[in-house]
Write a structure and sequence with these properties.
Number of helices: 5
InterPro entries: ArsR-like_HTH (IPR011991), HTH_ArsR_DNA-bd_dom (IPR001845), Metal_resp_trans_reg (IPR051011), WH-like_DNA-bd_sf (IPR036388), WH_DNA-bd_sf (IPR036390)
Order of helices and strands: HHEHHEEH
Protein name: ArsR family transcriptional regulator
CATH topology: Arc Repressor Mutant, subunit A
Domain HTH arsR-type: 2-99
Number of domains: 1
Pfam family, one: HTH_20
CATH superfamily: Winged helix-like DNA-binding domain superfamily/Winged helix DNA-binding domain
CATH architecture: Orthogonal Bundle
Distance between the termini: 15 Å
Strand content: 5-15%
Organism: Pandoraea horticolens
Largest sheet: 3 strands, antiparallel
Helix content: 40-55%
Length: 111
């Protein structure tokens, strides 16, 4: 099933990404893939204090851009790749009035 976004969801996602630390967390989680990373690994990699990271993770989760799972004592976060792809699709849906070939992603890679 493919995820689609409405205007409200797109604005919420873009607002969550419109902050440097949150963007860095999201990009790190995209690189990590579906397994994600533990909170400790995210904090260590990005040099963020736990309270600061907790706030940013909450904002990303509220926007639906990340998910979490608990394994024992650890919480792991992963990027919601379907939501990311839906946001990219939303932003480029009517690119150049639908003229084929004008709007191409910089990379042909897809998650």
């Amino acid at each position: 099933m493919q995820t689609t976004l409405n205007d409200t969801d797109a604005v919420k996602a873009l607002a969550a990404l419109a902050q440097g630390n949150r963007l860095a967390v999201f990009r790190l989680l995209v690189v990590a893939g579906p397994e994600g990373l533990s909170v400790g690994n995210i904090a260590e990699t990005l040099g963020l204090a736990n309270a600061t990271l907790s706030f940013h993770l909450k904002e990303l989760a509220n926007a639906g851009l990340i998910s979490s799972r608990q394994e024992g004592r650890y919480i792991y976060y992963a990027a919601a790749i379907d939501k990311m792809n839906a946001l990219i699709g939303f932003l480029t849906e009517n690119c150049c009035q639908g003229v084929p070939g004008l709007c191409k992603p910089a990379s042909s890679r897809k998650c």
